[in-house]
Design goal:
Oligomer: single chain
Shape: globular
Distance between the termini: 67 Å
Strand content: 15-25%
Strand order of the largest sheet: 1-2-3-4-5
Number of helices: 6
Radius of gyration: 24 Å
Structural class: alpha+beta
Helix content: 25-40%
Number of strands: 5
Length: 197
């Protein structure tokens, strides 16, 4: 399966930001570019006596939420002070990867908003056992969004700029090798057999 490069990933997110066909990830009444599922309860009063979910519960909710949105092969594991997410790639088009970035960011943002203290999320898309591409969500960016210092599209763009495509890098290396031609054979001999008698 062939995936996008970094530049097209960024372009895809900038064009498609907040266009995913899920109610929680799309725009809402407070602006076309600044709303996610984590905002849905922001307008109501929170009860300080509510039980704080544990990190393991939040991690399970994040994993289940992605599966409910159509992701397959989802695993979420602790990695140092952050999380590692593995999932099956949903497709190869710009829209597919932009939607993956947006939905995963939305789910992770919800977890941070609910009290998760993880520092980052490393997400990797797979085709069977082969890693295709990856991106990173820095929790500081998410917190800036939740505090109103960053718009939703700006958050997505920062995340898309971390996008790395493993499969394409190998394909490009092979193409470079194939492009090196061997036409040095004529440079060593002139083919002149003439001799002065």
């Amino acid at each position: 399966m062939r995936r996008r490069t970094l530049l097209t990933a960024v372009a895809g997110v900038m064009i498609a930001g907040c266009s995913t066909a899920t109610p929680s990830a799309g725009p809402a009444d407070d602006g076309p570019e600044n709303r996610s599922a984590s905002d849905e309860g922001a307008d109501g009063e929170s009860d300080p006596d509510d039980d704080q979910p544990s990190e393991s519960e939040l991690r399970a909710e994040f994993e289940t939420g992605l599966e409910d949105r159509g992701f397959e092969g989802v695993t979420v594991e602790e990695a140092d002070d952050g999380l590692e997410l593995r999932y099956d790639a949903t497709g190869t088009s710009d829209d597919d990867v932009a939607a993956e970035i947006e939905l995963i960011t939305d789910g992770y943002t919800t977890g941070i908003d609910r009290g998760s203290s993880t520092a980052f999320l490393d997400a990797t898309a797979y085709d069977r056992d082969d890693a295709l591409d990856s991106f990173t969500i820095d929790t500081e960016w998410v917190e800036a969004y939740l505090e109103g210092d960053l718009e939703w599209r700006e958050l997505l763009t920062r995340i898309a700029e971390t996008f790395e495509s493993d499969g394409l890098a190998e394909d490009e290396d092979d193409a470079d090798d194939d492009s090196d031609g061997g036409d040095d054979d004529d440079s060593d001999g002139d083919g002149d057999d003439s001799e002065d008698d």
